[in-house]
Every structure is written in C-alpha cells, then in structure tokens.
Specification:
Blueprint: H1 11-44, H2 48-93, H3 103-113, H4 177-181, H5 183-200, H6 210-228, H7 243-257, H8 262-268, H9 272-281, H10 285-289, H11 299-303, H12 316-326, H13 332-341, E1 343-348, E2 360-364, H14 365-372, H15 389-392, H16 396-405, E3 416-417, H17 419-424, E4 440-441, H18 458-480
Parallel strand pairs: 2-4
Antiparallel strand pairs: 1-2, 1-3
Length: 484
C-alpha cells in the first residue's frame, strides 16, 4: 500500500484511508470494551466473600512487592553512598601535595555523586512486575528533563520518578543507615512510644522490636517480684540464687512465643543468655565475671539506648554496627534471627563425609539441630564420616555425631557467621575481624530460619505476670519449710 503522504494519492483516497483506520481503531476499542464488560460481569457473579478474599490477596501481594522494592532501593542507595564515600576518601588521601583543589569544584563533585543518575538506573534490579498500565492517551513517565515549569513555579523536580525530593541530596548523609535507622531516630521513636504508653495507661511500650519488648517486660516483672520478696543480692541472698528464676522465666518465654527455638537451646546448652540477663538485672563484679567474653558489653552498648535483643548476639562488632545502623529498623528482630540462624562451625570436609577431599567447609548449627530433632531416640550411635551429604542431614544419629564432633554444645567461642549473612547485610561486615567462616557451605537442600515472637498483647502480659507470681511465690514458700 502506498504511503498516505504520497503526492500521487488524491484527497478523496486520503479521506477513505483515514476513515478505514478510524473504523479499525473504533472496532478495536469496542472489542476491548466488550471484553472488559464481560470480565466485570463474570466477576460480579462471584459471591461477595470470594471477591473480598481475592482483593485481599491482591492487596497483600502488592504490599509485599512494595516492601521488596523499598528494601532493594534502600540497599542500592546505601551501596551507592558507600562507594561515593570510598571514592571521596581515596581522592582526599591521594591529592597533590603541591596544590589544594578548588573547594567549590570538590563540593560540586561530591554533591553530584550523592544522587542517582536516573538515565543510567537499571530498573530491572527491582525484579517486580508493575500491576498497572497507564492509558494510551496519558504520558507514560515524568522526567526532570522533559517537564516544563508550571504557572505556579513548580516543576517536576519536586515530584520526580524516584519518589523523593531532590533537595534531600543536599542534606548530609540522608541515605545512610545512621540517618534513617540509627541511634537518633531510635531515641525519637522510643520517646514517642513511651509517651503514648503513658497516655494509654500501659506499663509496657511497643517499639520496633517486639522481641526486645518481651525481654524488657519480663526483666521488669521479674525484678519487681524479687524485690517484693526481699531479694537482696550479695546481702542476705547469694547472687547465685538469681540464675534459677532467670532460667525459669526465659524458658517460659521461649516455650510460649518461640517453641521451635527450645530445641536449639536444649541441644546447644546455650546458657550465656541466662548469665547475661542476670547481669542486666543485678550488675555487679560477680555477675559480670560470669559473662562469656563475647557477651561483655561494648562502649556503644553502655552509652547508647538500643533494642535489647542486640545484646543477645555474641559478636561485639556486629552488635556495635547494629546499634549504629539499625537501632530503629522495624526489621531488627528478623536481622537477629538471621544472625543466629547463621551461626556456623568450620571443619575439614573429610571429617564429616566419607571420601571427601581435604577442604574446609562450614556447617550451620541449626541444620544439624533440625535433623537431630526429627527423632526422639538418642541411643542410636553413628560413626563419622557419614556415607554422603544427604545422610548427614537426614540421619539424626549422624547429625548428632557431627554436632558433638564440632563442639557445637560448648558455647559461642566455637561459632562464626555464615558469609550469606553478610551478603544480605553487607553494612554489618567488619573486615578487621575473623567472624566470617571460610571455605564452602555444607548444607541440606532446605534450611530453616529461627522465628521471633509476635508483638505483646494483654493476654500474654497477664500470662507472664501470673507465671512469675506463682512460680516465685511457690519457690519461696517451699524454701521456707513446712513450719513457716
């Protein structure tokens, strides 16, 4: 067919061609409209409960996609900021001693580095499908280069495709973890939470860390009860007597809120948390000396308010970085569970697997415990090495033999961190420490992650209070003897 712009085509033929194209476009729109109406009719024929359920599922999926996007964007921005700081430091260290670079030029360069270049930004890294498509007659995207100033002086600079105000790039460190989730934001949030709790008449607060809320409330209840019973450490009572109530309360807490974790504590004999909690309740030289060296508080822990769950991590450098970078992070409990799940022990592969080469591997503590927990029979004995990797992670006897050989029940001093943890949270990595396990991972096909408790509710609070009152009153009455 000749082009409609061909001068050989008459005006009448052009009109006919335009009419045919218009009719074709009209029929296409009409067919789409009919198809849309049919879909609506089919949807309306479903019961309300099904339509509501479908909409709820769709909302949940879209919300999860938004959370994933926000998480990936935060990590991307943190990485860009880290690269910018690294380059700036390198330039400062290697500058020509014969002359000072122009200050305005340096400042301009740094400001330029601190913002994202939208043209070079690869949206595919977000890895999600956009659920909505704009109408054909509407603009597909606003860009700062194509938008023109409006009559009131506003431009697309104030509403750009990144969803952020570009003036933020002029605020120092706004994209860093410290600015968004560090110590200062945490203090602001905690103060606001404390005020709201007072207004609501609650004796406990809701923070970004439900795990820490449980711990703080239990410690408060336990200490108040001990004070009511007249407990005076290093006075009429031995400090040693505080460990039993602490053990009892922590066992109750984990059994109620994290039953899957009790197998972990039982197998590892991880008593360090009991000693840590006793010291937090009654700080003294006696309780401090019983702390495992890896659990002794750092300067950052002592000087800064932070979620209490951070204290449960047996790696000081990770604790300090969490306090500095993630105190106000709403996902701090998940970070803690990822860290504990990532406890590993290094070993030669030939010690565990028959015929394996002499290479270093690392095994997660949780992987062996999960296998051991599949059987209640502990009398069966297996002799290492196991026939193959599958047997090691499917046979409770072989898993128990490997667990004992790797001294996983001897405390935190044997543990390192799975490198996968630092791949997920690179800002927590400390190149000056030897916390990261070396070698290759030896793991089952499926790995479980430890859970964290749900937020406090009145029923749980009352259960805690009743348990502590009953247990300590009973223990105190029995210890006084029948003649009391």
């Amino acid at each position: 067919m000749d082009s409609p712009n061909d001068p050989a085509i008459s005006e009448a033929e052009r009109k006919k061609l335009r009419n045919r194209l218009s009719q074709r476009a009209f029929r296409r729109r009409q067919a789409e409209c009919i198809r849309e109406l049919r879909n609506r009719v089919n949807a309306d024929q479903r019961p309300d409960s099904e339509r509501v359920e479908a909409l709820q599922k769709e909302n949940k999926l879209l919300r999860q996609q938004l959370i994933d996007v926000q998480t990936k964007m935060s990590r991307l921005l943190a990485s860009v900021q880290g690269l910018s700081d690294s380059v700036a430091k390198t330039l400062d260290d290697t500058k020509d001693s014969s002359g000072q670079p122009d200050q305005d030029e340096r400042d301009t360069g740094r400001n330029g580095d601190s913002s994202l270049d939208l043209d070079s930004f690869d949206a595919s890294i977000l890895d999600f499908d956009a659920p909505f498509v704009s109408d054909a007659g509407q603009p597909q995207m606003l860009t700062t280069s194509s938008a023109a100033p409006t009559t009131n002086g506003l431009t697309s600079e104030l509403v750009n495709v990144t969803g952020t105000n570009p003036f933020y790039s002029q605020i120092p460190n706004i994209w860093t973890h410290e600015y968004q989730m560090g110590i200062d934001p945490y203090l602001t949030a905690i103060n606001a939470s404390a005020e709201s709790s007072m207004v609501l008449g609650k004796d406990y607060a809701f923070t970004n860390s439900p795990f820490s809320d449980h711990i703080q409330l239990l410690q408060k209840m336990l200490k108040n009860k001990l004070n009511t019973l007249g407990f005076v450490p290093e006075g009429h009572h031995s400090v040693q007597s505080v460990y039993q109530p602490v053990l009892m309360v922590l066992s109750m807490f984990n059994s109620m809120t994290r039953p899957d974790v009790m197998a972990w504590y039982a197998k590892t004999r991880f008593y360090h948390i009991i000693e840590l909690t006793a010291w937090q309740l009654y700080p003294s030289p006696t309780t401090f000396n019983k702390l495992h060296p890896r659990y002794r508080p750092t300067k950052a822990q002592i000087e800064n308010s932070h979620p209490g769950i951070i204290d449960w991590i047996p790696f000081p450098s990770i604790r300090d970085r969490l306090i500095q970078l993630h105190s106000a992070n709403p996902h701090i409990d998940q970070i803690f569970c990822d860290a504990v799940t990532g406890y590993v022990v290094e070993t030669p592969m030939s010690d565990l697997i028959l015929g394996a080469p002499q290479i270093t591997v690392y095994v997660r503590v949780t992987d062996l415990i999960n296998t051991m927990s599949t059987s209640t029979e502990e009398s069966s004995i297996a002799i290492l090495p196991a026939p193959d990797i599958s047997t090691l992670f499917s046979s409770p006897a072989y898993a128990r033999a490997a667990f004992n050989k790797l001294n996983m029940d001897k405390g935190a001093g044997y543990y390192k961190i799975d490198p996968a943890f630092f791949e997920k949270y690179p800002e927590l990595w400390d190149q000056g420490s030897d916390l990261t396990a070396s070698g290759i991972p030896l793991k089952p096909k499926f790995q479980k992650i430890l859970t964290y408790p749900k937020p406090l509710d009145p029923s749980t609070v009352e259960t805690y209070r009743s348990f502590i009152d009953f247990s300590l009153d009973a223990a105190n009455t029995i210890s006084m003897g029948p003649g009391s």
